[in-house]
């Protein structure tokens, strides 16, 4: 087998490992939206690995559907809603979480299967991911505002690299990369890095949020102590 096949498998293994580890970490933080989306990526990457090792196309088809889910709604909608817990204090109920996931799944089926989406589909994916990138730019701004420069730089790298992948995914082929494997090596590594980067950005914003909450509680208590009885 060619070297690029082994690099492809290693990149896919990296995505499986990072998405499952940080997906579980997010579930433990009770952020079910981010956790579920990360685990969808794990499932997609696992099927991609099985396809590479067995050649069974059914696993590739499953991976492509999961990929469509993440590109269309999983990352641009579900991941953004999950990250808003630390950027906008948005914490939907479990029922609303289920609505997000079911709605995203229904939307993906339409995008995946509807005849009228065949031609606009690549542009739809690109627009949705670009909107996600705009939100990440806001996350960078928030990180800088709390002094988390290293995490901000990390998210910038994730934003730029993932946007490049999204912008070339359906529109450009690397010369000589007939099986698209070289492109996927870069894409898988980019998505793996993004899953790690956003987790630590989430943690940094969560710490800042908790610090602000503690400060406000202390300020309120001091105010009560000064109030004449």
UniProtKB/TrEMBL annotation:
Q: Which source organism? A: Cupriavidus numazuensis
Q: Does the keyword Endoplasmic reticulum apply?
A: no
Question: Is-annotated flag, keyword Isomerase?
Answer: no
The name on file for this protein is Transporter
Instruction: State the UniProt keywords alphabetically.
Output: Membrane, Transmembrane, Transmembrane helix
Q: Where are the transmembrane segments?
A: 6-24, 31-50, 62-86, 98-117, 123-140, 152-169, 181-205
């Amino acid at each position: 087998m060619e070297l690029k096949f082994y690099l492809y498998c290693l990149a896919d293994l990296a995505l499986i490992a990072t998405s499952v580890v940080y997906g579980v970490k997010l579930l433990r933080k009770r952020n079910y939206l981010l956790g579920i989306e990360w685990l969808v990526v794990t499932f997609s990457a696992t099927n991609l690995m099985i396809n590479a090792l067995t050649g069974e196309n059914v696993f590739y088809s499953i991976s492509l559907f999961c990929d469509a889910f993440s590109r269309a709604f999983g990352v641009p909608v579900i991941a953004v809603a999950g990250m808003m817990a630390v950027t906008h204090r948005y914490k939907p109920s479990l029922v609303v979480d289920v609505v997000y996931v079911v709605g995203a799944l229904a939307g993906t089926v339409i995008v995946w299967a509807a005849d009228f989406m065949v031609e606009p589909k690549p542009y739809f994916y690109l627009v949705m991911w670009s909107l996600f990138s705009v939100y990440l730019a806001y996350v960078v701004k928030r990180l800088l505002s709390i002094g988390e420069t290293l995490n901000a730089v990390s998210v910038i790298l994730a934003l730029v690299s993932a946007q490049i992948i999204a912008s070339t995914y359906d529109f450009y082929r690397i010369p000589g990369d007939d099986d698209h494997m070289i492109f996927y090596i870069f894409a898988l590594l980019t998505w793996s890095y993004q899953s790690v980067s956003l987790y630590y950005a989430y943690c940094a914003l969560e710490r800042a949020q908790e610090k602000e909450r503690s400060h406000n509680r202390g300020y309120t208590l001091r105010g009560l102590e000064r109030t004449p009885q």
